[in-house]
């Protein structure tokens, strides 16, 4: 399914910019986006068995590919879930926690009828090292139930800021009961899947493009707050701050009755100079559409998060470290689509 591509032109200067706006529609070929659902860390049945046993894994960060890797080896002496049949069907899943940032769930295959499963699998996260170091790794073991009532078998949390990254060896860790910090510490608003790129002036040929362009491709949003039994009727607004004029703002179509809406909407802002990137901020907000009023669901701000724009103190230049890293990656990789999965937050 494809949607429109909107183009907006801006003139930037140190204190104001005068927009001259034109828009056009074009068909975009459907491109497969990041797969995998973003579900609650706490889904499942916690009280059925006591946590026991150990898990063997190793951690590594691939600097070249900017990828965090969890090498999951095996488990020993897991709890038995079905005592009558003497069996457990365990699998392992991981999240990056706890600052409300859902980088998404990763999980291994299910090993049936064993309390000593062997996986030898690698779970991967595309993430900047500086962002990774403010996360905790939550690794948990679960029994897979065909009816969906999965049983919690134990977990371990690792503070990645204090992790010894020279240690790439497999090590054994005892599985622990569910931590209270993980259960109580999340205000989850959903996750936006998007790509951005910066096209410098003249980078595609003589005077092509005549000015710099920022391309924003809003692909989809996962796990929105469900305000009604039927779901949510959502759309995305976009501004490039400091411009907040009604003429400059763009929005997607409304996707009805879906907490996992697919927008596939691209916006192109031109009129950029490369130096404008340090003072501008792309604000993307998700709203529930109703006849009388729209309800704010969550948003992100992509920028350097310095608190300043063209030398003026502004409260909207407040990007999180994850959002800053995403923007910096775009600035350092001209003409390349940078893909991200960013948590929605209060603004």
Structure in words:
The protein has 347 residues and is mainly β. It has helices at residues 129-132, 180-184, 321-332, and strands at 5-9, 20-21, 54-62, 67-76, 90-97, 106-107, 118-126, 136-143, 151-159, 171-174, 191-199, 212-222, 234-241, 250-251, 262-272, 281-288, 295-302, 308-309, 312-313, 338-343. The strands form five sheets. Strands 2-1-15-12-11-20 form a six-stranded mixed β-sheet, covered by helices on one side. A four-stranded antiparallel β-sheet has the order 7-4-3-10, with no helix packed on it. Strands 6-5-8-9 form a four-stranded antiparallel β-sheet, with no helix packed on it. It starts with a strand and ends with a strand. 37% of the residues are buried. The model is unreliable at 1-5, 11-47 and 180-186 (pLDDT under 50). This is Synaptotagmin-like protein 2. It is found in: Cell membrane.
Keywords, separated by commas or semicolons:
Immunoglobulin-like, 38% strand, four-stranded antiparallel β-sheet, mainly beta, 347 residues, globular, six-stranded mixed β-sheet, 2 domains
């Amino acid at each position: 399914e494809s949607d429109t591509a909107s183009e907006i032109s801006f003139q930037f200067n140190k204190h104001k910019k005068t927009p001259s706006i034109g828009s056009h529609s074009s068909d975009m070929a459907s491109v497969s986006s990041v797969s995998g659902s973003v579900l609650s860390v706490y889904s499942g049945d916690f009280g059925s068995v006591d946590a026991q046993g150990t898990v063997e894994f190793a951690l590594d960060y691939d600097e070249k590919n900017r990828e965090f890797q969890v090498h999951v080896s095996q488990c020993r002496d897991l709890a038995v879930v079905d005592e009558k049949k003497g069996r457990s069907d365990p699998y392992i899943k991981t999240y990056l926690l706890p600052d409300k940032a859902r980088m998404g769930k990763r999980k291994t295959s299910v090993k049936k009828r064993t309390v000593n499963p062997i996986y030898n699998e690698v779970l991967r996260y595309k993430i900047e090292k500086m962002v990774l170091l403010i996360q905790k790794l939550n690794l948990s073991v679960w029994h897979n139930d065909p009816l969906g009532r999965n049983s919690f078998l134990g977990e371990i949390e690792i503070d990645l800021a204090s992790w010894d990254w020279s240690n790439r060896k497999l090590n054994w860790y005892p599985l622990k009961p569910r931590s209270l910090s993980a259960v109580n510490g999340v205000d989850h608003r959903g996750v936006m899947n998007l790509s951005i790129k910066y096209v410098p002036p003249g980078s595609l040929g003589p005077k092509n493009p005549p000015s710099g362009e920022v391309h924003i491709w809003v692909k989809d949003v996962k796990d929105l707050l469900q305000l009604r039994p039927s779901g949510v009727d959502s759309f995305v607004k976009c501004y490039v701050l400091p411009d907040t004029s009604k003429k400059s703002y763009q929005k997607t179509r409304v996707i009805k009755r879906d907490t996992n809406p697919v927008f596939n909407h691209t916006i192109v802002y031109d009129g950029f100079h490369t130096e404008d990137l340090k003072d501008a901020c792309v604000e993307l907000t998700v709203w529930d559409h109703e006849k009388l009023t729209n309800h704010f669901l969550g948003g992100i701000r992509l920028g350097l998060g310095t608190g300043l724009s063209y030398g003026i103190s502004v409260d909207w230049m407040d990007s999180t470290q994850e959002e800053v890293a995403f923007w910096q990656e775009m600035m350092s990789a001209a003409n390349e689509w940078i893909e991200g999965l960013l948590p929605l937050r209060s603004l």
